[in-house]
Amino acid sequence: MRVSRIQAAENRQTVIDVASRLFRERGFDGIGLKDLMKAAGLTQGAFYKQFASKEDLAVEASKRALEGASRRWSDAAVKDPDDPLGAVIAFYLSGDHREEKMDGCPIVALGSDAARQGPDVKASFETGIKAHLEVLSRMIAETDDEQPSGKSMAILSTMVGAVTLSRVVNDPDLAQAFLDAAVKQVRESVGA
Prior knowledge:
- Keywords: DNA-binding, Transcription, Transcription regulation.
- Pfam families: TetR_N.
- By secondary structure, the chain is mainly alpha-helical.
- The chain has one domain: Tetracycline Repressor, domain 2 (Orthogonal Bundle).
- Helix content is about 75%, strand content about 0%.
- It has helices spanning about 5-25, 35-40, 45-50, 55-80, 85-90, 95-100, 105-115, 120-145, 150-170, 170-190.
- The radius of gyration is 18 Å and the shape is elongated.
- The N and C termini lie far apart (about 60 Å).
- The model has no long low-confidence stretch (mean pLDDT about 90).
């Protein structure tokens, strides 16, 4: 049965959404096309009608995940206009976010995997990381007169590192201690 162009476009978006979540949970190489397409409710044969390769899908899924993550930061900031950085810190460096394996930060979930991928996947991550830095730079500029680029890089590095470390330890107290230490360090670095 032939699929309409509209349905094909919807199917493509579904596959990208599902891949975005499953790649964050299992890594780029942690799920095969058959299982990925099954999770999207489609057959493996439909994959090659939508994507040139798994790497092509990884590029699109990475873009989707990073755009969503950047949007979550902006949404958190909008909810507390008096302390937008504090709102992002509270959301990002939380136990709830630490546990969001499929919907959490793609930089944390896939950063080391992305480093081993081709230049197109890395370009998606670079674009997403720059978007995060822009959000942070705007927030810092509102509270500090210094040039925000270096400071925003340090803050992003601290936050990503803290969530990463909190996910790789078994001890829940140590996991929380990484998040708490990052909150303190980020607040001190901006004088908040």
